[in-house]
């Protein structure tokens, strides 16, 4: 009997120790809004106003699991699984993938840095998102810049290491295509510096499609905290070769499941030069205001060598009801100019089909109004 009691006590002690060294966290966000927008394509192909219950202005709804295991000596095994969904009907987001937002496992060491493997955010999204007033928004109209360089990539290796105030990040997304190592591949690197109220950084990224056409990006950004205000500024330039096209969602093709704009049917190399400027002002601990402006000057929108432009101005007032729940009101105005009005390969999806691009009555502008509620758990 005593041996049995001692054995049970030892097992309990081992179990307790293992629990102390490992942890798993379940978390989530539900951000939804009632949103009005002008110039949406109707069932008859005309343009009309629309009011819908949709994803919110700040973050896509999600539920996730993340954890770590302390393996000793400053080394940890880590993982993260994150599902995206639509709160209005409960269906999956992100190409209907189960864990379409993130799905990776890795090793983290206090000396050597962190290496993760799986579906992850691209290096351009990681760095430029730090210097965006909304951290990259969630309405199409306040996040369209991220569709130019892509948001998440399958089959990705990501290495991150900090050296005091400097952080380095390198990503390599395998193409996974038989007979070649380049088609579908995305590579990138970023460096950032953060010290006190100042942060700035730079990034380069390149993606290769099924026909060896490339998207090349280089960008810079910075932010500065001045009392209750935080100022943001960034610029990036993206070049997409003639005919550059990502693979279809869920088809296992080069660049499948990547939210990236194509350049299909264009015999010219398209160049987007995008500025983003904005500010967050925390008027009180509960009340904050965010304003932003994005402008894209586009060269060679089509095979005729025509140019175009996209711009969006937005403002959001956000009030915290508690530490985890806030309500907000948002307004935005998006304008297309030049050949972008009729660009079928425009920054998806609002600047293309949603504004009737290519149609005789294609619109050059859209106004959006929204009232939203966000809860974090």
What fraction of residues sit in β-strands? Answer: over 45%
Helical segment tally?
4
Order of helices and strands: HEEEEEEHHHEEEEEEEEEEE
- Residue-averaged pLDDT, rounded? 89
> Termini, distance in Å?
46 Å
Instruction: Assign an overall shape.
Output: globular
Measured on Cα atoms, how large is the radius of gyration? 23 Å
Give the class from helix and strand content and strand pairing. mainly beta
Low-confidence stretches: 1-20, 348-354
Major sheet: size, sense and barrel closure?
A: 16 strands, antiparallel, barrel
Estimate percent helicity. under 10%
The total count of strands amounts to 17
Strand order of the largest sheet: 1-3-4-5-6-7-8-9-10-11-12-13-14-15-16-17
Q: What is the topological layout?
A:
Blueprint: H1 2-21, E1 22-41, E2 47-55, E3 62-70, E4 75-84, E5 102-109, E6 113-121, H2 123-129, H3 140-143, H4 146-149, E7 152-163, E8 166-173, E9 186-195, E10 198-208, E11 214-226, E12 229-240, E13 270-282, E14 287-299, E15 308-320, E16 325-338, E17 365-376
Antiparallel strand pairs: 1-2, 1-3, 1-17, 3-4, 4-5, 5-6, 6-7, 7-8, 8-9, 9-10, 10-11, 11-12, 12-13, 13-14, 14-15, 15-16, 16-17
